């Protein structure tokens, strides 16, 4: 779905939200891979309002089938004050929205918004170490079957790329480009370029590549272990 193809659907989403919330709708932004013209899935949007009632949710529920037909994910609906109070709880998720977004309606909700480095570092540590635990457990559960190991590596490749982008952001990267931010994180953690290239080639299942995911596992595991060591020793400049 290119930018020109998803914009009309996004405008209809905005129209539906304005009908539900009226003047209480403050901002709507599109975010994620679609904004970077690099996605096949549903479009993601964040809508900030002054208040949300049960009646509002019922009205949005009536629009959900139309959104699904238009390949729009259920928008993330948040009161403005709740969003600002949750930056410390969801620094990675909101940081990714801040990194790449496009304003569809209202005023830019991110003007002056800052995620604290300490919150981001703690979240990065949790994400990386959880990923590491998952890789080890899932490999054991695969029972050494090459096909199961290949599926594990392929399925987790997008999460690995996300780890790298979050590290880049932790180090102060302002890169909006998805690939550039991913590469920045890999370079920062001093990961082998060949391993990163092979793993990132698995992120898009439609891409043609000759990488054997099962054979990548030892180097993949070592790369994530390196990420864990890096985030443990990271200090703000």
Can you put this structure into words, describing what you see?
This protein is an alpha+beta fold and 237 residues long. It has two domains: 3-106, Beta Polymerase, domain 2 (2-Layer Sandwich), CATH 3.30.460; 117-233. It has helices at residues 3-21, 54-69, 80-85, 91-99, 117-141, 146-170, 178-188, 193-200, 213-233, and strands at 25-31, 44-49, 76-79, 101-106. The protein has a four-stranded mixed beta sheet. Strand 2, helix 2 and strand 3 form a beta-alpha-beta unit. Helix 5 runs antiparallel to helix 6. It is globular, with a radius of gyration of 19 Å. The relative contact order is 0.11. The model has no long low-confidence stretch (mean pLDDT 90).
Question: Quick one: biggest sheet?
Answer: 4 strands, mixed
What distance lies between the first and last C-alpha atoms, to the nearest angstrom? 40 Å
Taking strands numbered 1, 2, ... along the chain, how are they ordered across the largest sheet?
Answer: 3-2-1-4
Low-confidence stretches: none
């Amino acid at each position: 779905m290119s930018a020109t193809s998803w914009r009309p659907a996004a405008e209809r989403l905005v129209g539906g939200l304005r009908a539900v919330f009226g003047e209480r709708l403050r901002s709507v932004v599109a975010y994620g891979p679609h904004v970077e013209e690099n996605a096949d899935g549903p479009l993601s949007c964040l809508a900030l309002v002054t208040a949300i009632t049960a009646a509002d949710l019922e009205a949005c529920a009536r629009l959900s089938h139309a959104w699904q037909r238009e390949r729009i994910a259920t928008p993330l609906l948040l009161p403005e004050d709740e969003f600002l109070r949750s930056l410390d709880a969801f620094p990675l998720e909101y940081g990714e929205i801040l990194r790449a977004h496009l304003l569809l309606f209202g005023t830019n909700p991110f003007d002056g918004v800052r995620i604290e480095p300490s919150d981001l570092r703690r979240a990065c540590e949790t994400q990386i170490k959880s990923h590491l635990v998952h890789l080890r457990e899932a490999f054991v559960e695969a029972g050494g079957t090459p096909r199961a190991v290949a599926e594990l590596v392929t399925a987790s490749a997008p999460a690995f790329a996300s780890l790298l982008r979050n590290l880049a952001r932790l180090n102060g990267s302002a890169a909006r480009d998805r690939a550039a931010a991913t590469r920045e994180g890999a370079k920062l953690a001093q990961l082998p370029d060949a391993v990163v290239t092979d793993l990132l080639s698995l992120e898009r299942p439609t891409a043609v590549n000759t990488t054997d995911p099962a054979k990548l596992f030892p180097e993949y595991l070592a790369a994530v272990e390196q990420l864990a060591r890096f985030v443990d020793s990271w200090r703000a400049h």
